[in-house]
Amino acid sequence: MEPIIKLNNLTKQYGTFKAVDALNLEIYKGEIFGLLGPNGAGKSTTIMMMLGLTEPHFGSALVCGYNATENPIEVKKRVGYLPDTLGFYDNRTGLENLLYIARLNGISEDIAIQKATELLTRVGLEKDIHKKVGTYSRGMKQRLGLADVLIKNPEIIVLDEPTLGIDPKGVRSFLKLIHQLSREEQLTVLLSSHHLHQVQQVCDRVGIFVNGKLIAEGDIPTLSKKLLDEAPYTVEIRLQENHQENLIAIQNLLKQTQDIKNVTIEQDYLSITCTKDITAYIAKTLINAGFNLVHLHKKEFGLDDIYQRYFENTDENYRQTA
Amino acid sequence: MIFTNVILKIQMKTIDKLHNPISFIKEQIASSLLQTKTSKQEKIHPFWVMVQKETADHIRSWRFIILLTLIVLTCFGALYTSIGSLQEALSNTKDPNHAFAFLKLLTATDGTLPPYHVFIGFLGPLLGISLGFDAINSEMNNGSLVRIMAQPVHRDYLINAKFTAALITISMLFFSLSLLFVGCGILVTGLTPSPEEFLRILAFTVLSILYVSFWLNLSILFSVKFRQAATSALTSIAVWLFFTVFYQFAVNIIARALIPANGVDPMKMLGYKKLIMGLMHIVPSQLFNDATTTLLVPSVRSLGPLSYSQMYGAIPSALPLKESLLIVWPQLTGLIAATVLCFAITYYLFMRREIRA
Predict the structure, then answer these.
(1) CA angle, corner B131, sides to B342 and B244, nearest 5?
(2) Complex-level ipTM
(3) FRET partner for B26 with CA separation of 20 to 30 A, picked from A22, A285, B7, B329?
(4) Which of residues 29-48 of A touch B (CB under 8 A)?
(5) Domains of chain B by residue range
């Protein structure tokens, strides 16, 4: 399958500082891709280059088959972009804001009104159509933003920090809406964020972006596998008695299968890392061997752990190079 | 029988339609309404969509309403005083301009209030500055610049639309003011303006629009240059104050320093005068003043120094419009050049600008 977004060696420099450093990335039609990274990692700059709003110093961005630097108008016709600042006109109503964007995209007025009303209902703002945007809450503005990117019938929507400043409940419903829209309309979604938990819920694939470089890319289990010494699962077990002196015995017992990488014990607390989810097997083995289990917890690594690990690594790298 | 009745009724209806002008007009209105409905389905070019939005923004904004009120009030004040002194001015047959009643309306005063054209010269720059000082930086601080630029439009549409919209607003304002002035003049004096007077007033209106658009462009330039709207507004006002007040002081000081030691050599004196005039004429407000005076006072025949031989035998009389226009041509060109230069710099800076805040 041909990728709908293809970044090729994309580089942007501000003076000697490399905001984006030789970025290669492919995103396919219909997927939700999360661009993750701390503030100042170059996420927004990358998005700007994809829309042709900033010129790269090197490399190219192909979006929907068009080169974003040479043919930005064609790209901008097909991509809906919601900046992190939103940027609605506060002295206009929600409907007026949408109509303006629709008409800039060459949609005639009566079709635009119909479409805007439809979209505003869809994002749950039907009661606030004629209220000035200045009176909207942050969550409402975000939902208006979603209607705003959809009004031009885009093939791709790009959302920069879409969950910024909304309460947890709002985030969940907002992300659900994005997910639903993407599946129904076969939209490709690119969203950037530094909120890992939230992105984890909806993204098919994520890319982790630090200091202008994409340091990892893939779906979340793949990433965790790649990262955490190929042992993404940890089983934590609390035993009834202190078995610290029996460690060797337990190790020998459990290491009969190859999936278990490491076993440690601290008084009654047993921690086992493994490459596959074999919690049931571990429990069975221990019980059969006569141990009394009081607590069992399977710990899966989320993005936070992955992210943390990457930052630790890069920090170390920095210290070494410094 | 019933059948013929029905036919008769239908015939009556068509005849009614043909003969009743009211139903004809009604139908016309209905069809024109239908047409506006179809025009809604038309696609408007994005540039004009932007111009529409910007114009609406200007007209809805408080600062425009306040300045409009100020200008309208002062202008009608000026009109009132000039009507009061009109009788006197028109009966003065020694004055070569006494035949131009409507120009007198714009220039005559009894000393309590300055005349209309002086007011325009004073409030026009303020109007221009107020329409432009936050053109770009407010969009930038608000974050809307990025969102608009992410739509399929070229980047220069925005800056062109900002300028065009403000220009349309100013033009509407000045044309309606001038025409109102003429209208009031007709009502009050019972005279009608001669074609030449009317053309002179139109030329004056165009000149005012040009002058205001210079200040508009200057303030748009500052709005691209400075991030804060307050900074750009203050800078524009500072430039305006400098040119209207302090520049003349500065030129006077230079003039005093440069005055020829024994001012007897006429050639030296002429060169000196020309230099001072040249310095004075760099200022847009001076250009505007000279040009308006020439246009509204037809007897003005030169804006530079005249020698005795040039003056000799001249009869103090009004010049035709063409001659007056020839005299102000350098001023007009200077104003256009300054406006275009400001716009060019603004355009260049805006196109080079990183659009992210």
Answers:
(1) 65
(2) 0.78
(3) B7
(4) 44, 48
(5) 45-303+316-352
